[in-house]
Design brief:
Layout: H1 3-11, H2 14-21, E1 48-51, H3 54-65, H4 70-84, E2 94-100, E3 107-112, E4 126-127, E5 130-131, H5 134-139, H6 149-160, H7 170-178, E6 180-181, H8 184-190, H9 203-208, E7 222-223, H10 226-238, H11 241-244, H12 247-256, H13 267-271, E8 276-279, E9 281-285, E10 288-292, H14 299-309, H15 322-342, H16 353-357, H17 359-366, E11 398-404, E12 410-416, E13 426-427, E14 430-431, E15 468-471, E16 477-482, H18 489-501, H19 507-512, E17 516-519, E18 522-525, H20 532-540, E19 556-561, E20 564-569, E21 576-579
Antiparallel strand pairs: 1-11, 1-21, 2-3, 2-12, 3-8, 4-5, 6-7, 9-10, 10-15, 11-12, 13-14, 15-16, 16-19, 17-18, 19-20
Length: about 575
């Protein structure tokens, strides 16, 4: 028995399962899933791809058809997304990836989060003793961390790939050289009021998205990016060293040193970047086991809320129940309060991961659900230190995709450049991230307590990205899920998880459910999606609905049901879910 199987066996002891499943009511009947424990259940295999742009999904499927692995396909998907959806992710950004190995049953978490430069200090986004306006920080050279996604993909592909690295970039390269049709969503971003787009914003964005006739690119226009094609050629031929050493690294650093507010990122910082393979955090939920990356990902917060959800009977009412939605919102307030205070880069600050998931702590927090009518304070889990309240903002600019190959290996990956078009600075055909604005702008709270997510040299900013894998009790893959959305990612993922695993919905039905995000006194929702009774119940419980002002969801996922993948793609974006004919 391998290490992961031993860990899973420990998690699934009768005592642990009983603790995780009482005193919650039984889940409503759901369609047959491998997690029902039937020994004869067919292993979950692909090919399956769900991604935020059809061109990217097709590129991933083409790799799978050639016999490539799920990780091989992930390289192709990311390469295309960085071209056709540059407002969300790209070579200049970072990512978290969850990988399921069908042969061993192992679940691995890859951390490609960006890192702060060696010269970074806690007052990176302070001037004259005050925090910079957020827009000014995003557009500054200070906002870019050493990119991580290329190195992370190379690490994972070296361990799980079946095809040659050099053969994974062909579709993206052809689209960059020949041109691709601008999608309606990209056109909307080009024409938006984002800080990176207006004339007062980032010059590189304006230059790239302006046609020869002086007009902005519109939906249906063909956009070419020969610089991106050349970059892919170099990465394909030379591997990640082409990106992290030499001309590309020097030009990334030089771009961050341009005005306004030059940054301190150096070519040496980029060359020193290392992706990490971390131990996944997995916990039982009902008949399942949900796995997510550890901090600096916020996935542990999803696991905490699921544990509280099992102790919240009102959730059993289902999607038509006002009481269920009230409980869902109240649980979010508890989860976000703890997340915002305690989650950071565990290599730099003490994160009370075990305490947040401890049975007695979860039970005590869940007991508060019926009493909540407004924002709540963070709890005090075992192992928590004197950290201050969080002041981090998390804007739009992220994507998620799911891949399963013919052998049953799977990838769930969330990838980002942070804001729309990142920092708005471009080199070699791709935009740079503004990921360092995911740090707290203030290193301390008013009472002097340190912020867990304060800036430090070499530190990775806290992330809401939380790609998920779902297993059955025997450790077999039965699902994968994730979403973009800034801090709302947690609420989006949880809505879909509860919809599928508790309410018996199809994946598409769960994704289509209206979004509800309740973080402290910030409340956002797809207001038109809720009936009058639910709106009234939420308002009476201190959650009056307002239109969602955060990045919208882009959920992509699948659940293995009745011998096939039940997949879904968020209709709020342009994604598709593809299976082989």
């Amino acid at each position: 028995m391998g290490p992961f199987r031993r860990l899973l066996a420990a998690l699934l002891t009768p005592a642990v399962l009983a603790a995780c499943q009482t005193p919650a009511p039984p889940a409503p009947p759901a369609p047959t899933v491998a997690a029902a424990g039937a020994a004869e259940a067919q292993p979950a295999r692909g090919p399956f791809v769900a991604a935020a742009n059809p061109l990217a999904a097709e590129a991933g499927m083409a790799v799978l058809r050639r016999g490539g692995s799920a990780v091989d396909a992930a390289v192709a998907v990311q390469a295309v997304l960085g071209l056709v959806e540059p407002q969300s992710s790209g070579l200049g950004g970072g990512a978290f990836m969850m990988v399921y190995d069908a042969q061993t049953g192992a679940v691995e978490a890859y951390d490609g989060r960006e890192t702060a430069p060696a010269a970074a200090t806690p007052d990176l986004f302070q001037e004259n003793g005050r925090a910079l306006p957020f827009r000014d920080a995003v557009l500054s050279g200070r906002s870019t961390g050493a990119p991580g996604v290329v190195a992370m993909l190379a690490m994972a592909q070296g361990e799980h790939g079946r095809l040659a690295w050099r053969d994974l970039f062909g579709d993206a390269r052809a689209l960059a050289d020949d041109g691709f049709l601008v999608s309606p969503r990209l056109a909307g971003m080009i024409a938006s009021s984002s800080a990176q787009v207006p004339e007062a914003g980032a010059a590189d964005v304006i230059r790239y998205f302006t046609r020869p006739d002086g007009e902005r690119y519109r939906a249906g226009d063909r956009l070419r990016n020969p610089d991106y094609a050349a970059t892919l050629d170099r990465i394909a031929a030379e591997g990640p060293s082409a990106f992290y050493q030499g001309e590309i690294a020097r030009d990334i650093a030089a771009k961050t040193r341009e005005a306004p507010r030059p940054g301190a990122l150096t070519a040496e910082d980029i060359a020193a970047y290392r992706p990490l393979k971390r131990e996944a955090v997995c916990r039982p939920y009902r008949l399942y086991v949900v796995c997510t990356p550890p901090p600096p990902s916020s996935g542990v917060s999803i696991l905490q809320m699921l544990a509280m959800a099992e102790r919240t009977p009102d959730l059993a009412g289902g999607p038509e129940s006002p009481e269920a939605w009230v409980a869902f919102g109240r649980l979010q307030r508890l989860m976000y309060a703890d997340r915002d205070r305690y989650i950071g880069d565990a290599d730099f600050v003490g994160v009370p991961l075990a305490g947040l998931l401890a049975e007695d702590y979860v039970a005590a927090r869940a007991a508060l659900v019926s009493q909540i009518d407004g924002p709540v304070e963070a709890g005090r889990p075992t192992g928590s230190g004197p950290v201050g309240a969080d002041r981090t903002r998390e804007p739009a600019g992220t994507s998620h995709f799911v891949i399963v190959d013919a052998e049953g290996n799977a990838v769930s990956m969330t990838t980002t450049v942070e804001s729309v078009f990142g920092s708005g600075r471009m080199t070699h055909g791709f935009f740079l991230n503004n990921q360092l604005t995911d740090f707290s702008f203030s290193p301390t709270e008013a009472d002097g307590a340190p912020a867990a997510n304060a800036v430090a040299a070499g530190k990775r900013p806290r992330s809401s990205m939380s790609p998920l894998l779902i297993l059955d009790r025997q450790g077999r893959l039965v699902g994968a899920l994730g979403s973009p959305g800034g801090s709302s990612i947690l609420a989006y993922n949880l809505k879909a998880l509860i919809g599928v695993l508790d309410w018996g919905l199809t994946m598409q039905e769960a994704i289509d459910l209206p979004n509800l995000v309740v973080r402290g006194d910030t409340i956002g929702a797809d207001t038109a999606g809720f009936d009058a009774a639910t709106r009234e119940a939420l308002a009476a419980a201190g959650m009056p609905l307002r239109p969602n002002a955060s990045e919208t969801s882009g959920l992509h996922g699948a659940i293995w049901r009745d011998g096939s993948w039940d997949g879904g793609a968020d209709r709020r974006r342009e994604g598709v879910a593809l299976t082989a004919p």
